[in-house]
Amino acid sequence: MKDRSSNPETKKAAAVAAARLIESGMVVGVGTGSTLAFLIEELGRRVREEALRVVGVPTSFQSRVLCGKLGIPMRDMQDCDYLDLAIDGADEVDPRLNLIKGGGASHTREKIVAAMAKDFVGVVDESKLVPALGTTFAIPVEVLPAGLAYVQRALRAMGAEPVLRMAPAAKDGPIVTDNGQLVLDVRFPPATDLRKADQHMHEIPGVMETGLFFDLASKVLVGSNGASGPTVRTLTRIP
């Protein structure tokens, strides 16, 4: 489900710029994915070389392992109700800085972390900027396994096309999230009001969370290719 076409160098440039937003004393939500791996590496370097005092709150097992490997102090999500900052990648970003997330199947935990943060910052390369959400990426929906068939029927009744996300070739069967749930990748017709659709999906018994992040990101750092190498610009959400 992840997009392989994005540029690692521009993602790294944006991630390193985002790591500079972290100040000593902060408790920081740390997202999941290839872009965030660059941020975690830079954060680990700052902890070692700059004596940065920070506590990371990872959104996935993958990010927790990398934070531990690089010596970043950590705290469990369930022990937090407030974060100074949260930083994460995105699969799509629209002009109002609404996001689709969940390509790595961690969007439920990522949304909790984003919601509890004073500031939530997205980090992407320019390939993730779209005119409207759903342009290139399906909407991930985390579902209780017991409710799978019912949720699929309810989504089809909304006019959507849900597809159960399957694991890569090395593993048989569907993707299972860190929460022990399944993921449906859901596409709606182009004219659909996704904000209303998101509200409707949250009313379906068995739906845990969707990958639509409305009104959560305060800014998004975007890595691009410049004439002399990668550049980073900051987009700020207008309330």
The Cα radius of gyration reads 18 Å
Report the oligomer: single chain
**Largest beta sheet: strand ordering:** 2-1-3-6-12-13
Overall 3D geometry? Answer: globular
Average pLDDT across residues?
94
Count of structural domains: 2
Major sheet characteristics: 6 strands, mixed
The helix tally amounts to 6
Strand percentage: 25-35%
Helix/strand-derived class?
Answer: alpha/beta
Give the name of the CATH architecture of the largest domain: 3-Layer(aba) Sandwich
Uncertain segments = none
By CATH reckoning, the class of the largest domain would read Alpha Beta
Bin the helical content.
25-40%
H/E element string? HEHEHEEEHEEHEEHEEEE
- Total beta-strand segments: 13
CATH topology label of the largest domain:
Rossmann fold
Kindly, what is the distance between the CA atoms of the first and last residues, rounded to a whole number of angstroms? 31 Å
Key features?
239 residues; alpha/beta; Rossmann fold; Alpha-Beta Plaits; 6-stranded mixed beta sheet; globular
Notes on the structure:
This protein has helices at residues 8-19, 34-49, 61-69, 107-116, 148-157, 194-202; strands at 26-30, 54-58, 85-88, 92-93, 99-100, 120-125, 139-143, 161-164, 182-187, 207-210, 212-213, 219-226, 229-236. β1, α2 (34-49) and β2 (54-58) form a beta-alpha-beta unit. The strands form 3 sheets. It has a 6-stranded mixed sheet with strand order 2-1-3-6-12-13, sandwiched between helices. It has a 4-stranded antiparallel sheet with strand order 8-9-7-10, with helices on one face. It has a 3-stranded antiparallel sheet with strand order 4-5-11, covered by helices on one side. The mean pLDDT is 94. The protein folds into 2 domains: 8-131 and 214-236, Rossmann fold (3-Layer(aba) Sandwich), CATH 3.40.50.1360; 139-210, ACT domain (Alpha-Beta Plaits, 2-Layer Sandwich), CATH 3.30.70. With 239 residues, the chain is of the alpha/beta class.
